[in-house]
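Example record

The entry below shows one chain as it appears in the dataset: sequence first, then structure tokens.
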Amino acid sequence: MTHYLDRIWLYSEFYGEHLRISVQLHEDGNSYAAFLLLFNILELLCKSLKESDDGNVVSDIKWMLDNALITPEEEAFLNGQDGIRKIRNIMTHRNLYEYCFEDDGIVYSFANSETWDIAYANYAPHIIEIMYNAIVNKG
């Protein structure tokens, strides 16, 4: 993970430092805030790689796929119907207390802070790896 964070920091000190803060927030038990920061960094990075503020993050991620910065599997993980954006949208646009997340057949309510710890631990490393891959592929 450190290798990914270091490479992202070389691309942008701002993004790299905020990713480190996100990881630290998670380690300190503030995974909800860590997730929000992680999603914000992902969205900003997409716009940075695209070199345009036009469009929304869904179209930005699609642009990264069309320009071979991410794989179809990575795009599906981010943008798919059951992709990570679904969690982001629940966090920012819906009453998250009505929703839950399932892992290995166990259902976790988003109302519990432990759920955010589990979700962050499960998803953040892959999100960070995708950001790293996009930066490396951009060249």
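Notes for this example: The radius of gyration is 15 Å. Helices lie at 2-11, 13-27, 31-50, 57-66, 72-79, 84-93, 113-138.
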